[in-house]
């Protein structure tokens, strides 16, 4: 009883363990639940019978308890070691990934620095190149302004010249129309004078007879009106067909067609045989 009492100086690990507790813990650790039930049933049955007492079972030696503690610590340490290995492997992977990213960013930074230096050189070169264009641009701007001024003056002179040409053309057309009218009147007067001057007595008699015949025929019938219109359209100086006493039908037929016909109005009216052999 004195051995099972806890003191303030002893720890839980240093307390001796009973044999049945040690064996039960062993079976629990191995997962032998049915064996544990059988052992407890038989163990407590023997104690109730008085065959075995707790003092007879005794305590487990400290060596076994210490071995069990060491084994438990060993398992715990192994588990911690596995956890540490997993964490170390993850850390190594993360470190490797970060190293690759660092190398990538370092190379990118170097490339960016090189491009920046190249762009700086290009900017300096372009500034020097464009600086040489400023005098040329200034000169071209002055030429452009001068050209605009000349173009404006030329446009004004052109508009002025166009106005003068238009006025001259209008005046010329007026003069030409007046001259043409005067020339036509003069020509008509001369023609009338020439006709009256150069008309002989025979032509004068024929003209008077033709006019009398025209008035007589016009008053006779409506068909004669058309013939009178045709005769009026003819020139008064045209000679008439001679009057045939025998009354040749061909001359009468030809007299009906003294006016020229339009294209497509001619047609065959008869055939006259005048020779038997070929004409050479």
From TrEMBL:
Please cite one Gene Ontology biological process associated with this protein: axoneme assembly
Q: Which InterPro entries match?
A: WD-F-box_domain-protein
| Protein name as annotated | SPG16 protein
Cellular compartments per GO CC: axonemal central apparatus
Matching PANTHER family, A to Z?
SPERM-ASSOCIATED ANTIGEN 16 PROTEIN, WD40 REPEAT PF20
